Structures are given as C-alpha cells and as structure tokens.
Amino acid sequence: MILSKASEYSIRATVFIALKSLEGEKVNLKEISIQIESPEAFTSKLLQLLKKSGIVRSSLGKSGGFDIEKEKLESLNLCHIVNAVDGKADYSVCIMGLKACSDNVPCPMHSQYRNIKQNLNDLLHNTKLLTLAKKLRTGQVFLTN
Amino acid sequence: MILSKASEYSIRATVFIALKSLEGEKVNLKEISIQIESPEAFTSKLLQLLKKSGIVRSSLGKSGGFDIEKEKLESLNLCHIVNAVDGKADYSVCIMGLKACSDNVPCPMHSQYRNIKQNLNDLLHNTKLLTLAKKLRTGQVFLTN
DNA sequence: TTTAATTTGGATAAATTAGTCCAATTATAT
DNA sequence: ATATAATTGGACTAATTTATCCAAATTAAA
After folding, report:
1. pLDDT in tens, B12-49
2. What is the CA angle B93-A94-B120, rounded to 5?
C-alpha cells in the first residue's frame, strides 16, 4: 500500500466534503463515513486532524458538519492532506532505505527509481482537491467501494 | 516509505549476499547485518524467510553462512524478495484504497496514478538481483548508509 | 574430542498503525 | 425551554510491524 489507511480515508473524505462544498452544503461525520465506507470513529479522529491543519472547517451542534472553504479548495492538494494526518510524507527517500543515497552516492536502484519517485511526488503535489471533486461531480469517476 | 523495513533489509541483504556469491563466497549473519546496517536478530528472521522461499541457501555450523546459487541468481528479481518477506506485494491496488477501482469504475485519481503504478510494478518485476550485485561490484553504487 | 562459531526456532517485547467507546460540549430545531 | 443531533476530546483496545533474547542444533577447526 502506497498510502496509510489514515491518508486513504482522509483523501476520500476530503474529496467528498469538497464535492458537497462545491454545492454550498456541509456534511456530517455519519454521512461521510457511509459515503466513503470508512470506520466512523476513526474518520472522526482524522477529521479532527484535518481541522487542526486548517484543511476542513467544522460547525458544532445540531445540523453541524464539515465543509471546505472556497479559497482553501482552490489551493489544497494531496500533500496537504497526507501531511496533516501522517506527518511529513516524503516520497523522496531511498527505496532501499539508505539515508545517504543521493545522485552522488547512489544505491543500486537509484537510477531506476528516480523517475518513479519524482512522479509520485509530483502526483501528490500537483493533484488538487478541487480537480478531484469536479471530476467526481461529472459522474465519470467514483468513490464507491 | 514504499517498501516495508522487512523488504528494505531483505533487498539490501540479498544484494550483498549476491555480490559475495559472485565471488564464490558465502557470508554470515553478523557480517551481513554489519555491512547493510540492519538489526542482526531481525535480519536473521528475514533470512529464514528468504531461505524458506528458496531464495538464499544456508550452511550450518562453524564457518556456515548464506549464499545464493548461480542459477537462482540469474532468475531472481525484486518481486521474489518482497513476496518472500511481506507476502503478496501488490502495487496494482487503488491509491485511494477502493477495491472496486478499475479502468471501468475509476477512482478520481485512477488515470493519474495508472502509469506510476505500472512503473512501480515493472521496477519490481524487471529489476534482477544479479544486475544490482554487478552494479555494486563496479563500485559505482553503494550499500552504505 | 572438545571448543567455538555459526544457523535455527520459539517466545517475547516494543513501537506504530488502526480502530473503538463514551462522556462532554455545542447549537439547531421543535 | 427542551430535546435532539451533531462535534470534540480523552482513554482505551486491537492488530500489525519491527524488533530482541535465548536456548538448541550443527559443524568446522583447534
């Protein structure tokens, strides 16, 4: 698995919240965990982390729930999400686990892994939450399991 | 981290054993764990798994140790190693953790992740242990941490 | 033949990740 | 006002991964 469960759930959750936010709606924990098929209590914890990082916003009390502010939605990418729940996610580390590995002191797999690593990093940095939510809205992609 | 610690250590260990095997030498646990900078007892467990999968060979008693048979060395790739210590490693799974995700029912990231996933799989399937060991022998790449 | 260096195997421990449960707080809607 | 539906926070549990320790078995060398 490339991403942790925490990251997987968080990405699914934020994409779903983003979709709702696009329509000016907020959504509560229960519906989120039903829609993305994630354990409710665990998802709650993740939403708290996402909130602490300023990624989602929550409103308290009856008919409370979660949403993502318009401006945020424009800027958020997958790195932000992964970092919020897993701490610094770094896909630039050596695939063999060598700390010293670099272009100058390469591990035996360095050259072959280089591009993949770069592409993975790019994917996380360049994939915008907004883009994913809009895709979802078109009905061409899915969040169902 | 892309690979588990178990896989990282195992790859480093087998590459080192392969290097020695190329020169007709076997090498013992202690030296392996020193050279690849891995915890000795844990590495021992991994070597047992690799042995059970027929990847490495061991000789018992004083001046015992590990090596890899010539023929094996020709055929082994990274998949074999990762599978031996981590069970079936599958990098074809959905990055968002959706079981239903496929070309027909894609998750929002499916198209962007598709190539990366393919490249990762290719890397593991096509990278031969022998190639890595030979590279190491040239002194252009390193196993040091 | 004894000693010493090694693998083997089993039990156990520590750390991390994944997940649950419940009480307290908050605020809307009846 | 009050009941109700929601987030919040803390303690707890479970599962998996990453290790450690030690005794037994094996075999080469002294």
Report:
1. 999 999 999 999 999 999 999 999 999 999 999 999 99
2. 30
